[in-house]
Amino acid sequence: MEYMPVTQSMFLVAETRDQPMHVGGLQLFIPRDGQSPAELAEEVHARFVAATGVQPLFRKRPASPAAVMGLTAWQHDDEIDFDYHVRRIVLPRPGEIKNLLRYVSLNHGALLDRNRPMWEVHIIEGLRDGRIALYTKIHHSLADGVTALRILQRSLTTDPDDRSGTSFWDPALLRRRRPRKPKTPSGLLSKVTGTIGSAVGLADDLIGLGPAAAKVAIAGVFDKDFVAPMQMAPVTALNVTIGSARRFAAQDWPTDRLRDVARRHGVTFNDVLIAMCAGALRRYLHDHHELPDSTLTACLPVSLHGEGDGDGNAITAIIVRMATDIDDPAARLREIRASSSSAKNIVRGLKPIQSLALGAANAWPLAFATVPGFVKYTPHGFNLMISSVPGPDMPLYWNGARLDGCYPVSIPMDGLAMNITITTVGGKANFGIIGARAQLPSLQRILDHLDTALLELEDIAPIGA
């Protein structure tokens, strides 16, 4: 058995029937020249189920018995039931995008089986535009958004003539990415030395938690732009108890268009993403008579993954004011820039374990989301989560089929009825909006509002320094 760190087990502890804790993705592929959609779907399915080996991540499941050992340890299955994990679907006619989004919506509310490795791949054909789709699910205890995108990228190539496409779980993909080094005596000595150095560094980080907390507290008092942990957000329709039914909406915009806006206004690319979400949510809540007088705040996961890191979870979190109480889009963008810059400046001055501690303090409501009555009778630390996961800008292919969309499907939960996640892949900013079906009616209208918000940012005069 393998020990399960608390950063992984917390996603299992937090999971309930009404609160599944898996992340997902929806990828769209255009068949190569001369290939039909059915032929591409058959090729993908054949390559996926023909796997002769499976990466350890895709063989993990909570140890038996799942209700006890499964929260503290992993075990690895030697045999994978590909008939269960890999599913082939044909959409009902007429095969419109709304039929695909409806399929994802209905399936994303279903729990993954803890008695098996916790992942699924759905190969979906029947789109009348000739593309095929892959809808993937993997439990958040196994992977965060950055890792999920890495797993996808490893199976793709920038070469449209490459025909070596394989499954996400093929061990050869890991060997190609990170060649194994021989265990020479000097290598072992370096490993031991590195372990001692890491232990000393960890001790220094722990000693530094006190001063780091003081730094955060001082910023909360004297920096008007910084949103410190434990500050309260307004209660809206986004912050209610929810069921398991989901609604998913997705759309993309060219990254060049968003970068032009960022350069013009002297803000970051992520500031533009937040401003688009802020403008869209302001309109959506106003339409439903739910727009509060004070601003919404968003919790933004920040990746701590470094170059060469292994897969898994490595994230902290900051909180940013979305300035939804401001009608003027220029003034709203200035406020967002100031708030996000202040939060990032604090994180940059912290060591990894200190950053994790700040993230835990910022995300404190998540720890109590499953406690009966907590969401209904207690204040909220933020209104929603917005994540941005960067990927490669160049076109990507699987056996000559071009990736034409890569939309994240994340996790809404009690008190956080909507989640917005964006991936930047292949020259597109791909927005995936997942929400509670009953509590957030007409969720798809968010897509129109996002487009309107971007047009506003393009039309206003540069906001300056």
Fold blueprint:
Blueprint (H helix, E strand, L loop, with lengths): L1 E2 L2 H8 L8 E9 L6 H13 L10 E3 L10 E4 L5 H4 E5 L6 H12 L10 E7 L6 E8 L5 H10 L16 H7 L7 H23 L1 H14 L23 E9 H11 L3 H19 L9 E7 L11 E7 L7 H20 L3 H11 L1 H4 L6 H4 L6 E7 L6 E2 L2 E9 L8 E8 L2 E9 L8 H15 L6
Parallel strand pairs: 5-6, 9-11, 11-14
Antiparallel strand pairs: 1-4, 2-7, 2-13, 3-4, 6-7, 8-15, 9-10, 12-13, 14-15
Helix pairs in contact: 8-12, 9-10, 10-11, 10-15
Order of helices and strands: EHEHEEHEHEEHHHHEHHEEHHHHEEEEEH
Overall pLDDT score: 83
First CA to last CA: what distance? 55 Å
**Which word captures the global form?**
globular
Helix content: 25-40%
> Based on helices, strands and strand pairing, what is the structural class?
alpha+beta
Q: In percent, how much strand structure appears in the residues?
A: 15-25%
Structural account:
The chain is of the alpha+beta class and 465 residues long. Helix content is 38%, strand content 21%. It contains 15 helices and 15 strands. It has a 6-stranded mixed β-sheet, sandwiched between helices. Strands 8-15-14-11-9-10 form a 6-stranded mixed β-sheet, with helices on both faces. Strands 1-4-3 form a 3-stranded antiparallel β-sheet, with no helix packed on it. A hairpin with a 2-residue loop joins strand 14 (418-425) and strand 15. Helix 8 packs across helix 12 (352-362) and helix 10 (269-287) crosses helix 11 (329-348). The longest helix has 23 residues, at 185-207. The protein is globular and about 55 Å long. It starts with a strand and ends in a 6-residue tail after the last helix.
